[in-house]
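Hello Y.,

Per our agreement to keep a running log of every chain we model this quarter, I'm adding this entry. I've kept the format consistent with earlier entries: sequence first, then predicted structure.
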Amino acid sequence: MEVSRISSVSGVDLIFPEGFSFFEPYLHYFTREALEIGGEAYVSRTCGGEVSGVFTYDDFEKSAAVYTRSREVFDYFWRLKPFNFLFSELKTEVNSEPFDIYHLDLENHEIVHRFTHEISMADQGQIGELERFMALAHPGMNRRWTAVALANGDKCFTVRLGGEIAGLGWVSCVEGVGRVHSLFVKPEFRKLGMGEDILFARLLWLKAKRSRSAFSEISCSNSPSSRIASKAQMKPCGQVFHYSRKSPTVSEPLKC
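Predicted structure for the entry above:
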């Protein structure tokens, strides 16, 4: 195995073997995004030159993701950086929190929903407000992400009450595949159907963009979000695992 760092966005041009990852349509997107928010990205290859793993890392959040089917690659990247949490499709004996990947075939599914709340799409002029709300939803997050996400074409759907954002959710569309993510409703406004409205608004947007499918990663312990996804006919099709660790050691580069 040989590991190299991807030093610039222009260097994100990888060819993946068949069946490499459920997230394959998004791997270039995720890697570029990591670099654009000030993070790092690495790729591992077999001795024959085939991609065997991708690792993205945000030093501000101390968050990481490993995309690989190889335990050797997973273990190498596990030791590479001092993360607080790491996501991977690879299940190991290390304690982790499972997330179900909910999926919906948009080509063969009609989206029908009666909205309770008015939904709007945020724009660049609201970046400051979105950053503050996202920091409330995800304390310790890298605030650069919001501007980068909007610049890369992500859309943010919001519900406003009393002139302020009460809830929001993000959506991406890459290569005809939609990803609905980062839903958050303020606690005092939950159980009002707001999360359901925000999900259906995003699915309708994806449908209008002729996306073939949509997916969302939801913690198995997050029953409210799982129920909302089920109401939209989304069904689990796989899992990704959330690992936590505070004090890793540093790896040395591996060569063939």
